[in-house]
TrEMBL record:
Parts forming coiled coils: none
Protein name, entry field: DUF3054 domain-containing protein
Keyword match Membrane: yes
Top-level taxon: Bacteria
Length: 132
């Protein structure tokens, strides 16, 4: 592939990170407690395992796809790879940190909410692009 067709995936990575930051903030707001009050540190504590998963997903996507990184991020398969890695790695880190398997409802809500945000921004960009 020529260098002119290769693109840096900075925007999709940044949008994914923003999506996860919003996801983690909403989780902290919904589940604040005496042990974990709503704070910047609490938000980061919720966010970082999923950011590591996001990084792993992007690394896997960059190694697994023959598409440019940007194209891989925009197509459904590439987005699914990044999302699945984000959720799986994030929840595994959560389990290791907490010494317990996450409750099924947590797995379901974390998966659905992160999917909504991570696929949602892609759908919004695609819709905006199709209207031009």
């Amino acid at each position: 592939m020529s260098t002119s067709t290769r693109h840096t995936p900075a925007r999709p990575i940044i949008f994914d990170a923003i999506a996860l930051a919003v996801f983690a903030l909403l989780a902290r707001i919904a589940h604040q407690s005496a042990d974990m009050p709503l704070s910047f540190v609490g938000w980061l504590s919720t966010l970082w395992p999923f950011l590591i998963g996001l990084g792993f997903g992007w690394l896997l996507l960059s190694r697994a796809t023959a598409l440019t990184m940007v194209s891989g991020a925009r197509n459904g398969r590439g987005a699914a790879i990044v999302w699945l890695c984000t959720v799986i790695v994030g929840l595994v880190i959560w389990a290791l940190r907490n010494g317990a398997v996450p409750h099924w409802s947590f797995v379901l809500v974390a998966s659905a909410t992160s999917a909504l945000f991570m696929f949602g921004w892609r759908a919004a960009v695609a819709l905006a692009g199709s209207r031009k």
